[in-house]
Amino acid sequence: MKDIRVLSLGVMAMDTVLSVSELPRPDDFGFIESERTVPGGSASNASVAMVQLGLSVRQAGKIGDDHAGEDLLRSLVDEGVDVSPMVTKRGGTTFHTYIFAAAGGEHCIFANTGDAVTKLEASELPSDVLDGVDVLYTDFFVPKAGLYLARQSEKLGIKVVFNLQCPPLFMERIGVAREEIEEMMALSDLFLMGRAGYEGLCGGGTGEEEVSLALSRVFDRFGPADGVVLTCGEDGAFWRNGEETLHGEAYPVTVADTTGAGDCFTAGLICGLYAEGMGRADALRYASAAAALKCMQHGPRVRASREEVLRFIEERERKN
Known about the structure:
The chain is α/β, with parallel strands linked by helices. The protein has helices spanning 42-52, 67-78, 143-156, 168-173, 178-187, 195-202, 208-222, 261-275, 280-295, 306-319; strands at 5-9, 13-20, 32-40, 56-60, 62-64, 87-89, 96-102, 107-112, 135-138, 159-164, 190-193, 228-231, 237-241, 244-248. It is globular. The protein starts with a strand and ends with a helix. The mean pLDDT is 93.
């Protein structure tokens, strides 16, 4: 395994997780069975997962000086993430969410973006923020700083991984223009998206042939060197690179909570591809295993080491 250093930039949040028996229909009632506040956010979840898998991770971003920001920062330090590039806004409000998690893994998320996380300016970053970095990872919720870092990374030969989790229309609501998303895609070496991002960006259906054609169009237009990946939950993931679309199946597990599974998948893919030096098929298995282990655990962050992921794969392959 190579010693890979990652700079992560994006959503960091405190999540209030409300466990419910089922998500209510419109105008109906739901009952909360338990309530807890835990650190989360897609970028910081991915950062923690990468540290768990053996990578060195530096977290960039902006928080408020409220209790949520203090708790979030402390949690990252406790997890072994380097928070030296972090910026704190005096009197600011930290990004926080309310996650309704139902039995069987269904969930919905309400987000209060605050006035800090998405407002980080490139000028607020430390001048040495990219020193020693091998991979830049971003969910692009911090567009100005994200584009600056991606442009610099291209000049420095640093791999850029962009994960579009939300559709462009949602991103526009937090101040990210479609043109900025497309520039970020063009700067990326590896471009990932979930179903929501895929539907908003590509439209169309999710049949295997339709997916392959849509990913081919994205790849041909933006040319990410390491390809385009679509994650589809229990339906696995599709990876377009050159002339071939590879489909990796998800591992069937007893689901406790799917929150953060996509972040763990991304962390596993970065680790498998860039640190472990795996081919695409093996990297997909590695990422899927990391996501599966997360789904078996409550909360948005995973507790799974590199050895546990490899052992999980070995045991599942042996059973099959």
